[in-house]
Design a protein that fits this description.
67 residues; alpha+beta; three-stranded antiparallel beta sheet; 1 helix; 27% helix
Length: 67
């Protein structure tokens, strides 16, 4: 399974980043959250704004780089 989301537009990438907070609030009842990490300097034919995304238990610490 590929856990990489790639956007070809910075506005779409920004919208995704902002939406994660709302999604994580909805997932609190299930004790899980979406963990994201922006991939710096990613370039492909699909786009250049890439995020690694995974579902993790809510009790894991949040890193400074995590969205």
């Amino acid at each position: 399974m590929n856990n990489l989301l790639v956007f070809n537009d910075s506005h779409k990438s920004d919208g995704f980043e902002k939406a994660i907070d709302l999604v994580n609030k909805l997932l609190e009842a299930h004790a899980i959250r979406i963990k994201t990490q922006f991939i710096e300097d990613y370039v492909s034919d699909d786009g250049e704004f890439a995020w690694h995304v995974s579902v993790v238990p809510d009790d894991l610490p949040v890193s400074r780089r995590e969205g």
